[in-house]
Design brief:
Elements: H1 23-67, H2 72-78, H3 88-99, E1 106-114, E2 118-128, E3 139-148
Antiparallel strand pairs: 1-2, 2-3
Helix pairs in contact: 1-3
Organism: Sphaerimonospora thailandensis
Domain Putative Flp pilus-assembly TadG-like N-terminal: 22-68
Protein name: Putative Flp pilus-assembly TadG-like N-terminal domain-containing protein
């Protein structure tokens, strides 16, 4: 019975050429890089989508808060719904709502009154890349804008749990 030592040759049934040495290492390196890139796309892509959704959510909240600033004197005198002013009060309320999220890298990019009936608020949320930062892509700001207007008429009444409008039956 012969004892096997070292590499096999073609005559012993196994094939191990010098040309094959290290080929598995190349495969592992390439495969590891591909897995790293896929993980980067999943994790960092998810962070970017999350930042975009967060920006949209905060912009909607700020726009609704600003649109809630109704000129009550005009409403009582004429029945017409108008926003307070194109400047300070509207955007001040929007900044207050966005400011509650400042610790999360959130900032207001714009606040515009569309006439006397609607408000548009833009918000940017910063997100940082974890995996893709190694490749030089460090993240960016994701932006969103939302427009809101005061609701008017009976369609604006809230529904209760039994399906009746508030104030009915």
């Amino acid at each position: 019975m012969s004892r096997w030592r070292g590499s096999r040759d073609a005559s012993s049934g196994g094939a191990c050429d010098e040309a094959d040495r290290g080929s598995m290492s190349v495969f592992v390196v390439i495969f590891s890089a591909a897995v790293f890139l896929l993980a980067g796309l999943l994790v960092d892509g998810g962070s970017a989508i999350n930042a975009r959704l967060k920006a949209a959510d905060i912009a909607e909240q700020a726009a609704r808060g600003a649109a809630d600033q109704i000129d009550q004197e005009t409403l009582r005198a004429t029945g017409e719904i108008r926003l307070l002013s194109a400047g300070g009060d509207l955007c001040g309320r929007a900044e207050e709502i966005v400011g509650a999220h400042q610790a999360d890298g959130v900032r207001m990019t714009r606040c515009e009154a569309g006439g006397q009936t609607e408000v548009t608020v833009g918000v940017a949320v910063r997100w940082d890349a974890y995996f893709l930062g190694v490749l030089g892509f460090n993240g960016s700001d994701m932006e969103a804008a939302a427009t809101a207007a005061p609701s008017t008429g009976t369609a604006a009444l809230a529904r209760t749990s039994d399906g009746l409008n508030v104030g009915e039956g």
